[in-house]
Specification:
112 residues, alpha+beta, 4 helices, 3 strands, Tscrpt_reg_PadR_N
Length: 112
């Protein structure tokens, strides 16, 4: 299933929602969680994930911390206070968009 185009606009919302549910996560963990939840249908690449994480960190939506795990430094991402507010806003936007998309696709038989 090719979802790259659709995923691009939803990536930030997906990351925010996962961090809301899991408190803190590292990049690879995020990719694996998305793969697990979607039964392998959606695979996040490092090339899309990390620029989004870095952008959200620069915007003050995410904070980072590092931990030593098996002699390796692991960078964890978590939501800031602003990030907690942003996740609610992004989820409302997504729900509204999905509802409108469903209306459009169900009303036009040529699209189904």
């Amino acid at each position: 299933m090719s979802t790259n185009g659709m995923l691009k606009g939803s990536l930030q919302t997906i990351i925010l929602k996962l961090l809301q549910e899991n408190e803190k996560m590292y990049g690879y963990e995020i990719t694996q969680k998305v793969k697990e939840i979607t039964n392998g249908e959606i695979k996040l690449t490092e090339g899309s994930l990390y620029p989004s994480l870095h952008k959200m960190e620069a915007e003050g939506i995410l904070s980072t911390s590092t931990e030593m795990v098996e002699n390796r430094v692991r960078k964890y991402y978590s939501l800031t206070k602003e990030g907690l507010e942003e996740v609610e806003s992004k989820l409302e936007e997504a729900k509204s968009f999905i509802g409108n998309l469903q209306l459009l696709l169900n009303l036009n038989p040529k699209l189904s």
